[in-house]
Write a structure and sequence with these properties.
This protein is α+β, with helices and mostly antiparallel strands. It folds into two domains: 112 residues, Probable inorganic polyphosphate/atp-NAD kinase, domain 1 (Rossmann fold, 3-Layer(aba) Sandwich); 166 residues, Tumour Suppressor Smad4 (Sandwich). It has ten helices and 16 strands. The strands form two sheets. Strands 1, 2, 3, 4, 5, 6, 7, 8, 9, 10, 13, 14, 15 and 16 form a 14-stranded mixed sheet that branches. A two-stranded antiparallel ribbon has the order 11-12.
Length: 306
């Protein structure tokens, strides 16, 4: 199945036709188009139930997340074709950022049988491919989604604008918003902003990756970064570090960094915002995270298959 989000930032009618023809040359292909939130989950689950072997998703990270949630626990594999504005997951597994170039890689990967199970994160029962953002990060995503019509044209500048707008007007920065409870009994009681990561990098600014958690990976447990301040100077310092190696960020006295985790909880001091794989999911007062080993089959670019 070629599952398409036609409203995604990089998806055009021509792109859909070219990719469909390329896939159909060697495979039996059905095309399905999403038309509402969580539709990709239903379509992917339905495809798996009738014996479809691969669901190739042409869309952004949010559509990928939905499809993955439909495929968890099935034999059907997820294949990635970048169609969004940032395409974090596609780039993190080594795919080209151009969907037509990625299709050529996908065809070669399928020809070589480059498919294997990977681990995912889950939060309150919903799986995620690369990360969940809690607090300030989620508030930025909310502001971006309020201007979703601009994503196709503005892309990364829109995220930068939303980050500064959120900092100035849309997020309370004068008190901690949540506590992070680890399985070993440790409690970080002054969280302002946290990331729970299944892969690295966290995101991209143009072609520059944000290297937050190099210990995160599809075959390892979760990594968690908790910022214990949102004061301007230290926050800018750790952001600058993430655009390089991220070593200063991970060793900063106001940052708590842990990796290879199987579970954790985040408990709010009142409601706090959160997002999963770049989709804003609203506010909550508690999140329970778990690592799910070998949760889903994934088609890997042949150049990154071990």
């Amino acid at each position: 199945m070629l599952l398409v989000n036609a409203s995604a930032s990089s998806v055009t009618a021509r792109t859909q036709v070219v990719i469909h023809k390329a896939l159909a040359a060697d495979h039996q292909v059905t095309v399905a188009t999403t038309n509402r939130r969580d539709h990709a989950t239903k379509l992917a689950r339905g495809a798996a139930s009738i014996g479809v072997e691969v669901v190739a998703v042409l869309g952004g990270d949010g559509t990928l997340n939905e499809a993955a949630n439909g495929l968890v626990g099935t034999d059907c594999a997820l294949a990635v074709l970048p169609g969004g504005s940032t395409n974090v997951f596609a780039r993190s597994i080594g795919l080209p950022n151009d969907p037509i170039e990625a299709t050529a890689v996908l065809l070669e990967s399928l020809a070589q049988g480059s498919i294997r199970p990977v681990g995912l994160g889950s939060v309150n029962g919903r799986s995620f491919l690369f990360h969940a953002g809690i607090g300030f990060d989620a508030a930025v995503v909310e502001q971006v989604e309020r201007r979703s019509g601009l994503k196709r044209y503005a892309g990364h500048p829109l995220f930068v604008y939303a980050a500064f707008a959120t900092w100035i007007r849309h997020y309370e920065r004068d008190r901690p918003r949540f506590s992070v409870h680890h399985a070993d009994g440790t409690i970080i009681d002054d969280g302002y902003f946290a990331l729970c990561l299944n892969t690295n990098p966290y995101t991209y600014l143009g072609n520059r990756p944000f290297n937050v958690a190099p210990d995160a990976g599809l075959d390892r447990g979760l990594a968690v970064v908790t910022l214990r301040t949102l004061r301007f100077a230290p926050t800018m310092a750790v952001i600058g570090s993430a655009l390089a190696s991220g070593r200063y960020l991970r060793n900063h006295p106001l940052v708590d960094y842990r990796h290879d985790l199987s579970e954790l909880r985040i408990v709010g001091y009142g409601p706090f915002p959160y997002q999963i794989d770049g989709d804003f999911l609203g506010e909550t007062t508690e999140l329970s995270f778990r690592h799910q080993p070998d949760a889903m089959n994934l088609v890997f670019p042949v150049s990154t298959e071990p």
